[in-house]
Design brief:
15 strands; 393 residues; single chain; alpha/beta; 12 helices; globular; 18% strand; 40% helix; 5-stranded parallel beta sheet; 7-stranded mixed beta sheet
Length: 393
């Protein structure tokens, strides 16, 4: 009877070609991932970029016009061969200017649309809803249509602002008003983070001059029910009503205040949506003042405005306005970051590249970034609505 031999793994012999294949597979699994590996939303031919903004509801024109400017610049870049051979594709999601919808839309943009980065968000409450999600996912966002301090301080590694802050806007506004001798100032503001940020800016600017508001009143987001606000503000007989809201509510307040005989002035911050407000008011808009955070888009007095005109015309867009100008500037900053990031594009590479824009002058509009801050521009101007809804500086 033969005695069975014990199993000896070291004595098992494999064909040489199988041993070589196993060695290659094993070695490959131990190697670190190539630094040039494809990033989410990036292929050899395309970069997918997301925009989550209001495309419906009372703030819809803000998102729509921002998109027009972004789209126009992306088309111009694509016509020139794209960025390092990649075409730019913009994918949009509608949040209706409602924070809970923002959370759903941002997650869908990341998980379903597989976007590389986001551009051109709209609003403070919606921005506050979006940023934690983007920060957790380490996804950059360039250009927020808001000047709220809560989205600027403390700085966020993944958020790059293009426009000036509400503090800067309201300071310029109060400086202008008090310079004219106007001191009885009331504030009509949206009852959320955006409105409260604007109110705080006005109050800070007034306090610097030993002044206080004579009255304040609120309106709910996405509402035009201003009756209580009128009742709270008009009896104080303010010389000026500063409005921190979206265009529908602000227009409703102006029209109803005028109907009640109010003869004072109305000042708005840029978020109101200048063209949207002028369109909504019609001839009732004559004399309404709006602070601006982008160059005057109607006359080509600077190189950046002339480029904006050219890009819009090439894209088949005939209407110029402040919001599409802001979208254009946002897209231009974003694309400059892509170019500087190089061929092996990653989200971290884009962030590092944008931080090299320490004094990036686009021809009359400058943004400044660095590892310690992403505040962008400090540009603020003041405009007034004239006859026929035309703007004057």
């Amino acid at each position: 009877m033969q005695t069975s031999r014990s199993f000896r793994p070291d004595r098992v012999r494999f064909p040489l070609h199988l041993l070589l294949a196993l060695a290659v597979v094993t070695a490959g699994s131990l190697l670190p991932r190539s630094s040039g590996a494809a990033e989410v939303g990036v292929t050899d031919k395309q970069i997918t970029v997301g925009q989550v903004a209001a495309f419906s509801g009372p703030a819809a024109q803000l998102g729509e016009r921002l998109k027009v400017g972004i789209d126009a610049y992306f088309k111009a870049v694509n016509a020139q061969g794209g960025v390092h051979g990649r075409q730019l594709k913009l994918v949009t999601r509608d949040d209706g200017y409602e924070p809970e919808r923002t959370k759903v839309a941002v997650k869908a943009a990341l998980e379903e649309d597989q976007v590389f980065a986001l551009v051109g968000s709209v609003g403070t409450p919606t921005g506050l809803a979006a940023v934690p999600i983007l920060t957790d996912a380490k996804v950059p966002l360039v250009g927020m249509f808001t000047g709220a301090e809560a989205l600027r301080d403390p700085p966020n590694k993944y958020v790059f602002h293009v426009r000036a802050s509400y503090y800067q806007e309201t300071e310029r506004m109060i400086q202008h008003l008090t310079g004219l001798g106007l001191k009885k100032i009331a504030v009509f503001y949206q009852n959320d983070a955006y409105g409260k940020a604007g109110l705080e800016g006005v109050e800070r600017a007034l306090a610097k001059r030993q002044l206080k508001t004579v009255a304040t009143a609120t309106v709910e987001r996405n509402s035009v029910d201003v009756a209580k606000s009128l009742a709270a503000i008009l009896p104080s007989q303010p010389e000026v009503v500063v409005q921190i809201g979206a265009y529908k509510a602000c227009a409703a307040f102006i029209k109803q205040a005028r109907a009640k005989g109010y003869g004072g002035q109305f000042f708005n911050v840029s978020f109101v949506g200048s063209k949207a407000l002028a369109d909504e008011l019609g001839e009732a808009g004559v004399g309404v003042v709006i602070s601006q955070v982008v160059p005057f888009p109607y006359t080509g007095s600077t190189p950046i405005v002339r480029e904006y005109h050219q890009v819009m015309t090439q894209a088949g867009q005939k209407d110029y306005d402040f919001s599409s100008m802001e979208g254009f500037l946002t897209a231009k900053v974003f694309v400059e970051g892509l170019r500087r990031a190089g061929k092996n594009l990653t989200r971290e590479g884009l962030i590092n590249a944008l931080e090299t824009l320490k004094d990036f002058d686009m021809g009359g509009f400058t943004v400044k970034y660095g590892p310690g801050g992403h505040l962008g521009s400090s540009y603020v101007d003041v405009t007034i609505i004239g006859r026929g809804g035309k703007f004057m500086r």
